[in-house]
Specification:
heterodimer; A: four-stranded antiparallel beta sheet; 11 strands; B: mainly beta; seven-stranded mixed beta sheet; four-stranded antiparallel beta sheet
Chain lengths: 117, 110
């Protein structure tokens, strides 16, 4: 069974850093392309970042240069390193597994990041 | 690419059909010939789930009362007979050029 479990969220001051983790089971992270999607409170979905099986990474303009997506193959875990956090980064962050023709087919339950002083 | 959904809110009657439209600011036909337009559904307090991919293909486990259609820049999600579990917010999403979502359509029971 495919499972994705996010962790690492919390309250952080503006300008701070946080690393989110997404532990996967039931499949191999490095053989799939994986995404992070976020949802601000009461708002819609926003794609954040993507990593392909070959290692290529992509980012939304709103986080480019501040966020870094990566994975640890030995731990079968996806990460999102978030630096220079802003109030507008406050959101639930979801990780998702993509299949070749089915983006965002499997989702975790999300982890809440609150950026506030 | 900007994705625009209509309506933003849709009161529906149980057992009746419902329809949501999604328009993209430019064609979603990829250079490989495919159109990467998906639909997702999010119930309150839950993560979204994929319903439809590449315009009209139902994802695993999705009931056949959900169907997708369209081409180019105009797409539609239809629910043939709305059930109580279908309430929530529906999003269209394109992955042809970067990834963008529509603003969401809230479906609620009258």
């Amino acid at each position: 069974e495919v499972q994705l479990v996010e962790s690492g969220g919390g309250l952080i001051q503006p300008g701070g850093s946080l690393r989110l983790s997404c532990a996967a089971s039931g499949f191999t992270v490095s053989n799939n392309y994986m995404s992070w999607v976020r949802q601000a409170p009461g708002k819609g979905l926003e794609w954040v970042s993507l990593i392909y099986s070959g290692g290529s990474t992509y980012y939304a303009d709103s986080v480019k240069g501040r966020f870094t997506i990566s994975r640890d193959n030995s731990k079968n875990t996806l990460y999102l390193q978030m630096n220079s956090l802003r109030a507008e980064d406050t959101a639930v962050y979801y990780c998702a597994r993509n299949l070749p023709v089915t983006p965002l087919g499997y989702w975790g339950q999300g982890t809440l990041v609150t950026v506030s002083s | 690419i900007v994705m625009t959904q209509t309506p933003l809110s849709s009161p529906v009657t149980l057992g009746q059909p419902a329809s949501i439209s999604c328009r993209s600011s430019q064609s979603l036909v990829h250079s490989d010939g495919n159109t990467y337009l998906s639909w997702l559904h999010q119930r309150p307090g839950q993560p979204p789930r994929l319903l439809i991919y590449q315009i009209s293909n139902r994802f695993s486990g999705v009931p056949d009362r959900f169907s997708g259609s369209g081409a180019g820049t105009d797409f539609t999600l239809k629910i043939s007979r709305v059930e109580a579990e279908d309430v929530g917010v529906y999003y269209c999403m394109q992955t042809t050029q970067s990834w963008t979502f529509g603003q969401g359509t809230k479906v609620e029971i009258k």
